[in-house]
Description:
The chain has 78 residues and is mainly α. It has one domain (3-77). 65% of the residues lie in helices and 0% in strands. The protein has helices at 3-23, 27-36, 44-53, 58-67. The protein is globular.
Amino acid sequence: MTERxxxxxxxxxxxxxxxxxxxxVTYAELAQRLNEHGLEGETEASVNSKLVRGxxxxxxxxxxxxxxxxxxxxxxxx
Length: 78
């Protein structure tokens, strides 16, 4: 991973963590919501691991945005 990719990964990790905190959603609750929305197999530990690493799929990112009901997100917010 290049330095620029690491910067983007860290930026997205921090963004998701901030949105979870703002929404009052724990990793366990996020995992439950993701499972309910079809991202089967997510657990509190798997969510934690992805956010600690800072690397995850676009599918995971989009699902998180959907379950947190973040609409009208602009790149400037990132």
